[in-house]
Amino acid sequence: MFVRKAAWVVTAVLGLLFPLVAVAAPSASADAHALVRTLYYDVSQAQEFAADWDRAAVNWNNSVVNVKLARRASGTPTNIRIYADNGWPRAYVSSLGNGTVYMGRQAVQQGYYRPRITTHEIGHILGLPDRRTGLCADLMSGSSAPVSCRNDLPNAAERAEVDRRFAGTLAAGDVRAAGYTGSSSTECFVY
Ligand SMILES: [Zn+2]
């Protein structure tokens, strides 16, 4: 009697749980076990460009599902260090999801759109290389697009590429260990 009742309870609980699980799962969950990783960026050294880096985070958060960007807070790691100088904007990628980015005032003074620059540099941290197509529709075309280009969003292929790179079941700590292009050296990309 006890066993039958216990079995009924388990069945009832599972019956309650499964619809909830189904509802809670991401709608595009081809892989129900995929983990959304959060990368923390530090704007404390970003000088006058902090808002532009926040804009880059919003742009990426609205564009991809497998990785999220958030400002670092006490107790979180720092995945992305941010600086500003008078040179050209650039990104030093130490591993997928980790590195250092610079806003360079040289490009700003030439008229390049600040949110496009920051979103492009974060694109490097997320694993995208430069592709100098000259097209404004391509985020990773960088400064090969006209100075007047104000598109600061990745195109569909760029979004899909980032989601592919961050797909899978690696824990957050493993992203750092996985390295970038299998190399231990830091790669530098420019806007
Ligand atoms: Zn670049």
Brief overview:
The chain is 36% helix and 18% strand.
Blueprint of the fold:
Elements: H1 2-24, E1 37-42, H2 50-61, E2 67-71, E3 80-85, E4 90-95, E5 98-104, H3 105-109, H4 114-125, H5 156-165, H6 172-178, E6 187-190
Parallel strand pairs: 1-2, 1-3, 3-5
Antiparallel strand pairs: 4-5, 4-6
Bound molecules: zinc ion.
Features of the shown structure:
globular; 6 strands; binds zinc ion; 18% strand; 191 residues; alpha/beta
By secondary-structure content and strand pairing, the structural class works out as: alpha/beta
Helix fraction bin: 25-40%
N/C terminus separation: 71 Å
Low-confidence stretches: 13-34, 177-182
| Percentage of β-strand residues | 15-25%
Number of strands: 6
Average of the residue pLDDT scores: 83
**CATH third-level topology:** Collagenase (Catalytic Domain)
Question: Number of domains in the coordinates?
Answer: 1
Largest sheet data: 6 strands, mixed
Strand order of the largest sheet: 2-1-3-5-4-6
Description of the structure:
The protein is built from 6 helices and 6 strands, in the order αβαββββααααβ. By secondary structure, the chain is an alpha/beta fold. The chain has one domain (36-190): Collagenase (Catalytic Domain). The termini are far apart. The model is unreliable at 13-34 and 177-182 (pLDDT under 50). The structure holds zinc ion. Zinc ion (ZN) is lined by residues 120, 124, 130, 142, 189-191.
